[in-house]
Write a structure and sequence with these properties.
CATH class: Alpha Beta
Radius of gyration: 17 Å
CATH superfamily: Alpha/Beta hydrolase fold, catalytic domain
Strand order of the largest sheet: 1-2-3-5-4-6-7-8-9
Helix content: 25-40%
Number of domains: 1
CATH architecture: 3-Layer(aba) Sandwich
Largest sheet: 9 strands, mixed
Shape: globular
Strand content: 15-25%
């Protein structure tokens, strides 16, 4: 169940990693942990059609001060992909909370990329005792901020898709054409099933239709950091200002970066994240 694991494109000598598969009631969840176990917990939640791998380049920048926890949401990565389970945002958040309980985590700063930020918000709604602060990275505040897709949808009747089809599908996830998308991220999409791909993406839309994130976050009263690549081709970066309605929120725009700043420029993404977490970390770890 537990073993060390190496990251295929982590650079900079990250600490040894512990990986495990947690058997939850409605499916196994894959979890990775990096950094000192006695350090404050920082939970990272990936976006749609992705996995823990999307955070790999960030890990060496975060483990000096945090116990970094990542997991593959049900239907993604190395977690189970059952066809007879629900993939709603509240259900995904419930599973995340159950996984943290299994790990003995009582408090965590939670960061989510794209739709992972939607799951992070739902987790805070369900478990305000667990979530101490929230960081959203290129998470659209509402469906009004969604940019009409430039790339064609994957033909689900011809599964699995080719690398060329996947690159075209994923191209708007980055600020510039020609960005070399890591093969591992293409494989993350291919390893999903047509059902889990369409159902999980639809779940995000449904959750945002019910209530915009700034309204939800205002009700929560949690410290909030919003990081947004200014050249996002999926969500209007100007919509990041919607989060300023949340009392005490901080919004950081990153010029020249797109929807995935955690991959395009990990140091520029980590800098505001670490400054934010330092404000919500026990003093013994910030001196």
């Amino acid at each position: 169940m537990t073993a060390s694991d190496s990251d295929p494109y982590v650079h900079g000598g990250a600490q040894a990693t512990e990986s495990s598969t947690l058997p939850l009631d409605d499916g196994d969840i894959y979890v990775r942990q990096d950094g000192p176990h006695d350090a404050p917990a920082l939970l990272l939640i990936h976006g749609s059609a992705s996995s823990t791998r999307s955070w790999h380049p960030m890990i060496p920048l975060l483990t000096g001060t945090h116990r970094v926890i990542r997991l593959d949401l049900l239907g993604h990565g190395r977690s189970a992909k059952p066809a007879d389970r629900t993939y709603t945002i509240p259900d995904q958040a419930r599973r995340v909370g159950a996984a943290l309980d299994r790990l003995g985590i009582e408090h965590a700063v939670v960061a989510g990329h794209s739709s992972g930020g939607v799951v992070a918000t739902a987790l805070a709604e369900q478990r305000p005792d667990l979530v101490t602060a929230i960081t959203l990275i290129n998470t659209g505040p509402s469906l009004d901020a969604l940019i009409a897709p430039e790339s064609a949808a994957i033909n689900l009747s011809q599964w699995p898709p080719t690398d060329e089809q996947l690159r075209w599908f994923a191209s708007t996830g980055f600020s510039r054409e020609g960005y070399q998308i890591p093969q591992e991220l293409l494989d993350d999409v291919r390893d999903m099933t047509p059902h889990t791909l369409t159902t999980t993406m639809g779940a995000t839309r449904s959750y945002l239709q019910q209530r915009p994130l700034p309204d939800r976050l205002t009700a929560l009263g949690k410290p909030l950091l919003v990081i947004f690549g200014q050249d996002d081709r999926r969500w209007r970066s100007s919509s990041a200002s919607d989060y300023r309605a949340v009392p005490g929120s901080k919004v950081v725009l990153l010029p020249g970066l797109g929807h995935s700043p955690l991959l395009e420029d990990p140091p520029r993404t980590a800098t505001p994240l670490l400054a934010f977490t330092a404000l919500h970390t026990p003093s013994a770890w910030t001196e």
